[in-house]
Design goal:
Layout lengths: L6 H17 L6 E6 L2 E7 L2 H4 L6 H13 L7 E7 L3 H10 L3 E6 L18 E4 L3 H17 L1
Parallel strand pairs: 3-4, 4-5
Antiparallel strand pairs: 1-2, 1-3
Helix pairs in contact: 1-5
């Protein structure tokens, strides 16, 4: 069966969420969680709005997905996120036992990939999907902040 739903399609959806964060003055990270080619959660950073350092896009997505599924494990799910998850989010993703994580831009300073074993051993990790678009949104955001 041919399907239009692939990693690029869903990363574009995560980018739309990141743009919402950008417009709201949040660091522009967006995420979607997919189960059986259906988006079950959409989120973006809410740390400023909620005054909560844990309100990362991934954390919001994990909570929404678990609520949708009626359980705490995200088996048979894929997280698409525009920026590599940080260590905090990586730990939460470990405990969620998510099947797959796909991220756009790497985060060399704070990314969870710097730490061995941060993700569940059965979790597949794919990086670099729409990397240029994801990176450019971050660069634009921080350049605008420095100017303003």
């Amino acid at each position: 069966m041919i399907t239009p739903f692939n990693d690029e399609y869903f990363m574009k959806q995560a980018l739309e969420e990141a743009k919402k964060a950008y417009e709201a003055g949040e660091i522009p990270v967006g995420a979607v969680v997919v189960s059986k080619d259906q988006i079950i959660a959409r989120s973006h950073n809410l740390t400023e709005r909620l005054n909560d350092v844990t309100a990362h896009a991934e954390m919001q997505a994990i909570t929404s997905s678990a609520e949708f599924l009626g359980g705490k494990y995200l088996k048979d799910c894929t997280l698409y996120v525009t920026l590599e998850p940080c260590t905090m989010c990586g730990g939460a993703l470990y405990w969620s036992q998510i099947d797959k994580i796909v991220f756009g831009a790497s985060d060399e300073k704070r990314g969870a990939s710097r730490h061995k074993g941060v993700y569940h051993p059965k979790t597949e990790v794919v990086c670099g999907i729409l990397e240029n678009q994801c990176s450019q949104l971050m660069k634009d955001f921080f350049e605008e902040r420095r100017r303003g």
